[in-house]
Amino acid sequence: MLSNLAASSIIFTNSMAGKAYMTFGFRAGGQDSGPAFERAHKAQLNEAEWSPILIAGLILLESKGQATPIAAALAAGGSVLYLWAKCAGLLQISPIGALARYFAGFMMAGQLLTLLK
């Protein structure tokens, strides 16, 4: 399994890779339409919604000494799978990444709520 810090680092790196893909794969060449652009654009917008939440949760849990290896693995794996499956047009696979992120988020939320007691 993965540590919270490792997972947050993977998600951050994945986010940067997705942004570089959009910039150098499309925008730098002046491409702003077409099926591949639209898939990548939608994938990056979705990734931009999820990454800050997941990274913040993972780092907060890490700072509190709370190990959540399953949630960390689901968050990192789901983030990478969703972004690149969506960009590649593997629309049957990308929902698996989306569900993994949901499971990870709710698992982390549950762990964070236990810290309030």
From TrEMBL:
Main subcellular localisation: membrane
InterPro entries for the chain: MAPEG-like_dom_sf, Membr-assoc_MAPEG
Entry keywords, A to Z: Membrane, Transmembrane, Transmembrane helix
GO CC terms, sorted: membrane
Domain of life of the source: Eukaryota
Subcellular location: Membrane
Keyword Protein transport: no
Protein name: Glutathione transferase
Origin species: Prymnesium parvum (Toxic golden alga)
